[in-house]
DNA sequence: GTTAGCATGTAAGGAGTTACATGATTTT
DNA sequence: AAAATCATGTAACTCCTTACATGCTAAC
């Protein structure tokens, strides 16, 4: 049942598991994380937090020490929140590998088993593969684009998705062989000196 | 004043400039074009078409020949629609190089002057550069991520954007040198005979 | 004959943005 | 002193998706 809106919820739950935080801070981290696209607004975040409060997934505490700064509302996860987070993270299925959701899941992969990780990575990969196939198929029907720019855009798009597929494959292999180190460009030997 | 919703409008206008089309067909092309992400639904397209009809940007014609298939409503651009398309395509500024809009502009670059193309490409590039800088800056403050997956996601994200910046730079160079051929893997010699 | 794909729409609802509103604190 | 940034919120609005509703045509 995880709809699109649960994206923020999952992200907030995940971030709060790394430590209590107030809204403003949360927003910055969120933007850094999923903010490759557009920025999350307060009008989006605060209502989401209120909703999570109502659902007892998080609780607010106003720090009571000698304040030098403005009263900030610090949020932390409740036990119920932890449960919910685990539940969401163990979900395998479309919701886990759709564009937006995937990044969030991946970001918090440390909180799940390798088994789940593999399933999500593989799901994501075949999702992208399907997309590639569909485009290839439809491209044959549409008769190779006459327009230069259209063709270039198409080419670049395909290339990007193919790259992503390779990235996922490397991650899958790394998971399978129980490796720690994610691929990284190429560093067979720890490279003593590389002037940027 | 171009808001987000004008994205569909621009795309439809552009596609219809390549020939009259009915809604269903339009949707397929649209999905192929901007559909790297999620699919456009009918509930989105048809109301948009109605709105454009009301604005006299397009007009519908029901083909009257001996029908073998269901009556399809074929749309084509009006003169006003052509004007609007030109206007939108010559806009330079944030709306032209935001994530969603950029692809559409690029797709129809053939319909604009090199001057506009260059400005949009450069705008897009500095937009991405800013983003990169912001992440780099904030990354320094947050103290290199402790989490493996978080770090890998960060790395991959940065790499992707850097790739995109290089792509744009190549396109800008190609525009500047009045070249026809977009970078394409490797085609050094202009190949005197191009069959197609 | 029935499934899959073509074809066009509408209504309700969700998620998030913009703009508004307010005020403290830190830096220049 | 002014400007930037920290900090929290609300209301209106927009865009889009989901689900529903309908019916034709081609293929199996």
Automatic annotation (TrEMBL), chains A, B:
<feature type="compositionally biased region" description="Pro residues">
    <location>
        <begin position="182"/>
        <end position="196"/>
    </location>
</feature>
<protein>
    <submittedName>
        <fullName>PadR family transcriptional regulator</fullName>
    </submittedName>
</protein>
<feature type="region of interest" description="Disordered">
    <location>
        <begin position="172"/>
        <end position="196"/>
    </location>
</feature>
<feature type="domain" description="Transcription regulator PadR N-terminal">
    <location>
        <begin position="12"/>
        <end position="86"/>
    </location>
</feature>
<dbReference type="Pfam" id="PF03551">
    <property type="entry name" value="PadR"/>
</dbReference>
<dbReference type="InterPro" id="IPR005149">
    <property type="entry name" value="Tscrpt_reg_PadR_N"/>
</dbReference>
<keyword id="KW-0175">Coiled coil</keyword>
<feature type="coiled-coil region">
    <location>
        <begin position="118"/>
        <end position="152"/>
    </location>
</feature>
